[in-house]
């Protein structure tokens, strides 16, 4: 199956409004949307105070919403049919909200915790971001709810980058504290702060963001995202154990985060760590941050071959040093490179999910075939594909 962003971008607004109206017996006050993401480079760097370079996809989560004057949140999903879920905002922090409702109610809860005048809401959601594909369906859901809250309660935060960063912080808090996934903030930040046609250089030392033009078409290129369909879960222990290992290493090195380790002094820093596994984890983080810088320079210089080389080096480091790849991701990367991709790497948290390959636009089909054949030969499940020709824009109201 070939899925392009543009086809999946079609907003199912009519169905959503119909479902909202039949479920809640009134019309929504408005519709808001937020994108999933693919990270170009800079993996497992966000929670180390580092750099990353994600891109917003054109696949999106859309929410129809209406404000309430009480503290009740009522939600229904078009994609996960079931009963209407009801949560009282006053009890979100203590009641152990589970499932997809945690991402929705958690965001409204976190905005209130931030001192914003947010009350309850009725919401209907639907998404074209494939779930469990490592393309941030959770963050897209959170960001769409944050955008809806901004509109429903007149927060005025969508108007500038500082406001959007504040919304993203609330989304991350919801994910960490209510959904229980100890993630680092990249996904929520790009969903809210991206700019169409650009990759977003995020610096987690100071929270700043810089737009980096991404004109794939000018170079005759496209990004092929391979959803391996191997399951990944950020709430399982692997992600958290990598995070804790980095924190322990920083402590041993006497720095606040691994961002403070100077790449020029990496060997000396590694020599101070007794444990070989910890040394590999640190080497990944420090070299990956340097690769993000290299990738931004290469993109600005139009040196797409160098971008491809950095993709490959990133994958090797994630596979060998950070040990978050898996047979499906390695197979996708190898098969894409065999078909002539300029570079390929796993993207997102790893242990399944998606890989991304930088390919000539006229080689998309041959690359897909190569990946599909390699999966069949390896006895792996059927992968799915998504083509990114143009970087998407950020969360906001649905217009038109
Ligand atoms: C997941 C997390 F949600 C992000 O915060 C980030 O750490 C990523 O894995 C790895 O780069 O997407």
UniProtKB/TrEMBL annotation:
<dbReference type="InterPro" id="IPR006206">
    <property type="entry name" value="Mevalonate/galactokinase"/>
</dbReference>
<feature type="domain" description="Galactokinase N-terminal">
    <location>
        <begin position="19"/>
        <end position="67"/>
    </location>
</feature>
<dbReference type="Pfam" id="PF00288">
    <property type="entry name" value="GHMP_kinases_N"/>
</dbReference>
<keyword id="KW-0547">Nucleotide-binding</keyword>
<feature type="domain" description="GHMP kinase N-terminal">
    <location>
        <begin position="103"/>
        <end position="192"/>
    </location>
</feature>
<keyword id="KW-0418">Kinase</keyword>
<dbReference type="InterPro" id="IPR006203">
    <property type="entry name" value="GHMP_knse_ATP-bd_CS"/>
</dbReference>
<dbReference type="InterPro" id="IPR013750">
    <property type="entry name" value="GHMP_kinase_C_dom"/>
</dbReference>
<dbReference type="Pfam" id="PF10509">
    <property type="entry name" value="GalKase_gal_bdg"/>
</dbReference>
<keyword id="KW-0808">Transferase</keyword>
<dbReference type="InterPro" id="IPR036554">
    <property type="entry name" value="GHMP_kinase_C_sf"/>
</dbReference>
<comment type="similarity">
    <text>Belongs to the GHMP kinase family. GalK subfamily.</text>
</comment>
<dbReference type="Pfam" id="PF08544">
    <property type="entry name" value="GHMP_kinases_C"/>
</dbReference>
<dbReference type="InterPro" id="IPR019741">
    <property type="entry name" value="Galactokinase_CS"/>
</dbReference>
<protein>
    <recommendedName>
        <fullName>Galactokinase</fullName>
        <ecNumber>2.7.1.6</ecNumber>
    </recommendedName>
</protein>
<dbReference type="InterPro" id="IPR014721">
    <property type="entry name" value="Ribsml_uS5_D2-typ_fold_subgr"/>
</dbReference>
<dbReference type="InterPro" id="IPR006204">
    <property type="entry name" value="GHMP_kinase_N_dom"/>
</dbReference>
<dbReference type="InterPro" id="IPR019539">
    <property type="entry name" value="GalKase_N"/>
</dbReference>
<keyword id="KW-0119">Carbohydrate metabolism</keyword>
<keyword id="KW-0299">Galactose metabolism</keyword>
<dbReference type="InterPro" id="IPR020568">
    <property type="entry name" value="Ribosomal_Su5_D2-typ_SF"/>
</dbReference>
<feature type="domain" description="GHMP kinase C-terminal">
    <location>
        <begin position="296"/>
        <end position="372"/>
    </location>
</feature>
<keyword id="KW-0067">ATP-binding</keyword>
<dbReference type="InterPro" id="IPR000705">
    <property type="entry name" value="Galactokinase"/>
</dbReference>
């Amino acid at each position: 199956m070939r899925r392009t962003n543009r086809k999946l971008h079609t907003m199912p607004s009519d169905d959503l409004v119909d479902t909202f109206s039949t479920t809640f017996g009134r019309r929504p006050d408005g519709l808001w949307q937020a994108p999933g993401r693919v990270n170009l480079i800079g993996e497992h760097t966000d929670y180390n105070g580092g750099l990353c370079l994600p891109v917003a996809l054109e696949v999106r989560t859309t929410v129809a919403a209406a404000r309430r004057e009480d503290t009740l949140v009522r939600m229904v999903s078009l994609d996960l049919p079931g009963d209407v879920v009801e949560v009282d905002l006053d009890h979100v922090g203590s009641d152990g909200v589970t499932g997809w409702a945690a991402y929705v109610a958690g965001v409204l809860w976190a905005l209130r915790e931030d001192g914003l005048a947010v009350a309850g809401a009725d919401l209907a959601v639907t998404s074209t971001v494939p779930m469990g594909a490592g393309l941030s369906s959770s963050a897209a859901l959170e960001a769409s709810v944050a955008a809806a809250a901004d509109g429903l309660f007149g927060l005025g935060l969508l108007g500038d980058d500082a406001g959007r960063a504040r919304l993203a912080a609330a989304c991350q808090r919801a994910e960490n504290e209510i959904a229980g996934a100890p993630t680092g903030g990249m996904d929520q930040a790009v969903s809210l702060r991206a700019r169409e046609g650009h990759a977003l250089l995020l610096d987690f030392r100071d929270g700043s963001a810089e737009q980096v033009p991404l004109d794939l078409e000018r170079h005759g290129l496209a990004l092929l995202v391979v959803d391996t369909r191997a399951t990944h879960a950020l709430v399982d222990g692997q992600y958290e154990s990598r995070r804790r290992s980095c924190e322990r290493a920083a402590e041993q090195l006497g720095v606040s985060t691994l961002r403070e380790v100077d790449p020029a002094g990496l060997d000396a820093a590694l020599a101070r760590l007794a444990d070989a596994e910890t040394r590999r984890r640190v080497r990944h983080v420090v070299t990956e941050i340097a690769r993000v810088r290299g990738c931004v320079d290469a993109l600005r210089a139009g040196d797409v071959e160098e971008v491809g080389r950095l993709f490959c080096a990133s994958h090797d480091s994630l596979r060998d040093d950070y040990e978050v790849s898996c047979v499906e991701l390695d197979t996708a990367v190898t098969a894409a490179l065999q078909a002539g991709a300029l570079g390929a790497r796993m993207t997102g948290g790893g242990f399944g999910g998606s890989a991304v390959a930088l390919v000539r636009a006229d080689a998309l089909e041959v690359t897909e075939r190569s990946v599909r054949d390699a999966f069949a030969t390896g006895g792996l499940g059927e992968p799915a594909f998504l083509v990114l020709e143009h970087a998407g824009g950020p969360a906001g109201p649905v217009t038109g």
